[in-house]
Amino acid sequence: KIRRITAPQITARKGGEPIVSLTSYHAHTAAIVDKYADFILVGDSLGMVMHGMDSTLGVSLDLMITHGRAVMRGTQRAMVVVDMPFGTYEESPQIAFRNAARIMQETGCGAVKLEGGARMAETIRFLVDRGIPVMAHIGLTPQSTNTMGGFKTQGRDEESWPQHEADAQAVTNAGAFAIVLEGMVEPLAARITKQIAIPTIGIGASAECDGQILVLEDMLGLNEWTPKFVKVYGNLGPAIEQAVSEYTTEVKSRAFPGPDQTYR
Ligand code: KIV
Ligand code: NA
């Protein structure tokens, strides 16, 4: 039996070979990612990517658990991290623990991730002290899109740097095992990465981070639009369209099913 990568093993990678991560929401793609990634994130971006929502705010705990279970079934090696969705952890450390425990129990995943810096430090400490590894997430935090006024790259204004640096330090002191830096200018990501003792995982936060993560569907070219920080490594959108189009033509011309696909 293959042992899964653990949260302390991720932490130990600080400053070493870059940590590789992608999101996955279901068993089949997760099985492919599992061959390469150190950890797989079941991100609440699944609300937008898989379910056509226009933000992550409508994602429920049950939906995260459903997808978390699918990803766990499809994988054996990578650590699986499941996002805590909006409304399931902000209110109190106790409520956060109850919901994080459900995620851990019902999916078998290795850690949870939640958004927020200093304001979430007490909650992170509460969960970690009770056996739940927590990945933090600061910078552009999509669950706060309504208070931030949209999706904006963070740190363009140097005066904002101390707050982001304090957030990174606070979640580190609270016991987070790693931290996602999202949508952040390179010099700020570099400063934070140097200042804290846990690995930074960047998304739109430059190569200065200790690791990188992307949304799988984005890097596979399955979304019509992708932001600047995404590199499209595979053009699956057009490939799927080509296949569906050929199938349509062959059904209409009765070329499919052919002799090979027919029981005689
Ligand atoms: O939900 C998600 O996909 C994420 C990553 C972008 C870090 O939180
Ligand atoms: Na997320």
TrEMBL record:
Known cofactor(s): Mg(2+)
InterPro entries from the UniProt entry: Pantoate_hydroxy_MeTrfase, Pyrv/PenolPyrv_kinase-like_dom, Pyrv_kinase-like_dom_sf
Pathway field: Cofactor biosynthesis; (R)-pantothenate biosynthesis; (R)-pantoate from 3-methyl-2-oxobutanoate: step 1/2
Gene Ontology cellular component terms for the protein in this record: cytoplasm
Any Pfam family hit: Pantoate_transf
Active site: 182
GO molecular function: 3-methyl-2-oxobutanoate hydroxymethyltransferase activity; magnesium ion binding; methyltransferase activity
Principal subcellular localization: cytoplasm
Keyword Signal set for record: no
Annotated binding of 3-methyl-2-oxobutanoate, by residue: 44-45, 83, 113
Catalysed reactions, semicolon-separated: (6R)-5,10-methylene-5,6,7,8-tetrahydrofolate + 3-methyl-2-oxobutanoate + H2O = 2-dehydropantoate + (6S)-5,6,7,8-tetrahydrofolate
Ranges in coiled-coil conformation: none
UniProt-listed Enzyme Commission number(s): 2.1.2.11
Keywords: Cytoplasm, Magnesium, Metal-binding, Methyltransferase, Pantothenate biosynthesis, Transferase
Binding residues annotated for Mg(2+), in chain numbering: 44, 83, 115
Cofactor note: Binds 1 Mg(2+) ion per subunit.
Subunit structure: Homodecamer; pentamer of dimers.
Reported function: Catalyzes the reversible reaction in which hydroxymethyl group from 5,10-methylenetetrahydrofolate is transferred onto alpha-ketoisovalerate to form ketopantoate.
Family assignment from sequence similarity: Belongs to the PanB family.
Protein name: 3-methyl-2-oxobutanoate hydroxymethyltransferase
Lineage, uppermost ranks: Bacteria, Pseudomonadati, Pseudomonadota, Alphaproteobacteria, Rhodobacterales
Name of the coding gene: panB
